[in-house]
Design brief:
This protein is α/β, with parallel strands linked by helices. It has one domain: Alpha/Beta hydrolase fold, catalytic domain (Rossmann fold). It has five helices and nine strands. The strands form two sheets. It has a seven-stranded mixed β-sheet, sandwiched between helices. The protein has a two-stranded antiparallel sheet with strand order 4-5. α1 crosses α2.
Amino acid sequence: MTELPATIDLNPSGAHPESSIIWLHGLGADANDFVPIVEHFNILEKYKVRFVFPQAPVRSITINNGMKMRGWYDIFKLELAEEEDQLGIQESERLLGMLIEREIELGTPSNRIILAGFSQGGAMSLYTGLRYPKPLGGIIALSSYLPLANHFEKDRKAENQNTPIFMAHGLFDPVVPLMLGQMSKAQLEKLGYFIEWHSYSMPHTVIPQEILDIGTFLEKLM
């Protein structure tokens, strides 16, 4: 049995949340990375929302000369989609699935659970959310892309065909190229998914306007 990943859990709106947001960090960061973003969302004034920030496993990252750091999967090349760590991606999918099930067991229906993430975390949110066999409340993928895209059409689950998806990307992203994000968007739209797409004049980061737009998206989901 795979062990549930460590998490930072914030429940500023009460002990019995109406919704849960599972937010995944990027490569080399940790569960603390996006904790400060919570205070910027006005939804907490109106709704009981639980935030869950999971800790990725420590692994050797090939492109960084094998240096060990927290990551949801290995990166082999600068061209992210050219050679992918299928086993690592699938293992992290299992971890994220366990976290979703934990939230369900704690009383949050699956369709009130939102997956969110930055970079690798956003990629895992897309990958897991659209393959998950129960309907989810929404997916937020920031500066990311759809991993293992060639397998997606046969692996996707009908339960999340209509799940709202927020994708955002920097116009000058040197880590996850804008074109890769756009290709993922186009692939999903071709298969009938609705994407709320935003692009910003920024590199591989998150900016205040993006946080405002995420807050508006979350407000609609609530």
